[in-house]
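Subject: complex prediction, re-run

Hi both,

The earlier run crashed halfway through, so I resubmitted it with identical inputs.
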Amino acid sequence: MKILSRSYIAIVFAILYIPILVLMLFSFNSTASTGVFSGFSFQWYGELFKDARVFTALRNTLILAVSSSLISTVIATGAAVGLDRMRSAKIRGVINSVTNIPMMNPDIVTGVSMMLLFAFFGNLVGATADKLNFFTLLIAHITFNIPYVLLNITPRLRQMDRNLPEAARDLGCTPVQSFFKVELPFMMPSIIAGAIMAFTLSLDDFVISYFTSGSDFETLPILIYSLTKKEVKPNIYALSTLIIIAIISLLILSNVMSSRSNQSNAGSLRKGKDKLNGKENI
Amino acid sequence: MKKRSDGLLRSAAAAPHVVWSVLFIVAPLIFVCYYAFTDASGHFTFSNITGLGNYAGTFALSVCFAFIATILCLLVAYPLAYCICKLSPRSQKILIMLAMLPMWMNLLIRTYSMMAILDNEGFLNKALEAIGLSKVRILGTPGAVIFGMVYNFFPYMLLPIYSVMSKLDSRLIEAAEDLGCNGRQVIMKVILPLSIPGIVSGITMVFVPSISTFYISQKLGGGTFDLIGDAIERQFQRPDTYNVGAAISLVMMLLILVSIAVMNRFTDEADGNGAGGGIIV
Amino acid sequence: MNNEKLIELRSVSKSFDCEQVLRSIDLDIHKEEFITLLGPSGCGKTTTLRIIGGFVSPDEGDVIFDGKRINDMPPHKRPINTVFQRYALFPHLNVFENIAFGLRLKKTPEKEIRSRVKEMLKMVNLKGFERRSVNNLSGGQQQRVAIARALINKPEILLLDEPLGALDLKLRKDMQVELKRMQRQTGITFIYVTHDQEEALSMSDTVVVMAEGRIQQIGTPEKIYNEPVNAFVADFIGESNIVSGIMLEDYMVSFAGQKFKCEDKGFEKNEPVDVVVRPEDIDIVPVSESMLTGKVTSVTFKGDYYEIIVDIDNFKWMIETTDRVAVGATIGISIDPYEIQVMKKSEFSGKYGDYSSFSDELEHLSELPEEEK
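This time it finished cleanly. Structure:
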């Protein structure tokens, strides 16, 4: 029984990882073949680094991820605090339902709905050229990030002993001081976890970006998409390999950091898209 | 009086979020409806919706593919979650990290790596040739598309099931055994019913992206299959077909919302505080 | 304790969601007093405390501090500090910073902060704990930090909301003694909320017994125990047999079909009353010399005494005795006049004091910690 279950685990994980490992392997192939490994070489990496588009896309992706995660974190933190104190459970319920729409809806619907909004207003202001640009993309990313950040902060806030802000007031804090000296520090681990999640979601997003970005601002996923539309070339393998390595190092780093700070908030390591179950996952 | 103004101030912290939600969540959805019921010149029409009859095959195929992919995910993930739960906490942690890792890699990269394997001149066929078997054409078959969906969305099924299952009180299982359940009965009568919330969220999390994907079918289906996602994507290439695209999106969204609502009702009955039950409805 | 009034509550009422929690409370609290609000869950004692602390404002009535009305003064401006139920220590600050919190807000010089925190830690027996994280402290240690954090601000009044509720019995007893010592040492008025009558009796100068949003009785622990004003107080504080009786005349009451001499007077002739007799005040005597006789229905060994339930005329009496009797035996009892406490009839008459359905479990159920309002 034990052997059976272990081998089952092994097989599933093997299937999960073989494609990725093969892709990494063939990024070092000396020929363009994706079937036969004919020799070790860095030529595809060399070709990749000659392409200025890659660097622009990387820079764009980072700019977008940083700005959208910061803005969405600020908005979501305010929302979490405000909703927590809201008396009417009904209004809170409505707001929460609306907030969760981007999580529930297929990405493609979120993408096209925002595209239609931008298109409509673009027509109104008479923008003849490209209505989509960095700002439409930023708005889209902030929008789909907010619910995930909120998902991190709300449970933490709910855990807070109601007496904590009262204790602060009791010891002489004004309401504003109590917020900044006690409540915000209490929420901080979840805020950071939420921001990291938003950052990674933004880095990773393709579908929504595809519909809301203009031709002047290309992110890495969009670049990969346009490259793979044409022929299969191992330079995309090389790019993917680099991205995978970057992700793994980031993961290890954040794991080390979190175990060092002894804050067992695994939330930050969790991919955001485990939608419904979000807060319940490891 | 002081107290009340303080409470109001607090609630006001949510104001930017409320404004943002109205502008960029509610308004876009209204625009989807608006475009779905107007023609290119802005006049009201039902023709986009009535014209969806042409896409009946597309819808049927998408639902079918997504359904099969979801069931396959469930069949693979459930036993896997069970096996993982039996391991030591340390191994569990490592395996779950490993299961999550691919989710951090872009969908495009994952799909692309599948192509590298399944291609006619790809790794799998070369390997088959090497051991003296004939090549199989995999890319462009329904199997490739479904496999792509399973491969890409598998972690979304595994994680919720695992998280519910790992939190099951082991004393419940002992109690069931104490009361005379054998191994199979423990699974059927205790573990399965209690893990339904995880299964339901897993199903939603796999079904929704599967039914709406367009990249997977384009790459692994070799353009042979037209799924809803492909149809929508195509309509939004040119402004004059936005309206049809909006109509397709609207119908798909409703389709999904209804299925989620039904599923949530199902979990709420099975489990009072079902994971995320009733989030939307 | 001196006689100067520090806090006065004047006909204070409060409702939450249409449910009246406090019904016109009047209460004077004096300087240097250790006063305890005692009552079952839902009696309004925590709400009273929160009104004094400024976390809840009364719907009606006034809160007067040192002669000034402070109804609208926010908590941070009141010279009052609180030790919260689950301590409410700030998890992101260490022991030192938790204790120094109030002083830092007042921009106290660093040097003074350091010496005062040190002094406080010494007082609560936590020397050397400065750099520890509050999350890794035991319940008792957290409790001490919470007390130090409040006392360092030298408040006029310290509010304690069931502070020992989460501690185990042994630790609770130790902390009771320590709290009493700290109160004497600092001379600060302590307002203490608890549902534990033993705690209330052993620590307080004054006990305020509350039930159903009203104050039932205010008095010294001895007075509350020996001279309860109504059936509720008699039942809530200690064990008691409460029977209906008739005050025949001054110093003469009749109950259980017999006339008894007592030490109470001032009732009307033949006024219906409640009579309280404590279980430990009843003597078992030979049937021939007895005032009342009854059949023993149960005997429970309690260590240093037996708890006996005796059926006398279908009313179950509880007796605590060191004599050994057998279940089913017929025994006689005798009650000395000074052990009989006569009380006016009240809304609580007939609800308490009969041991026919007595069970320890019910007792515990009624002592669950009060829901937070």
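The two ends of chain A are 26 Å apart (CA to CA).

- K.
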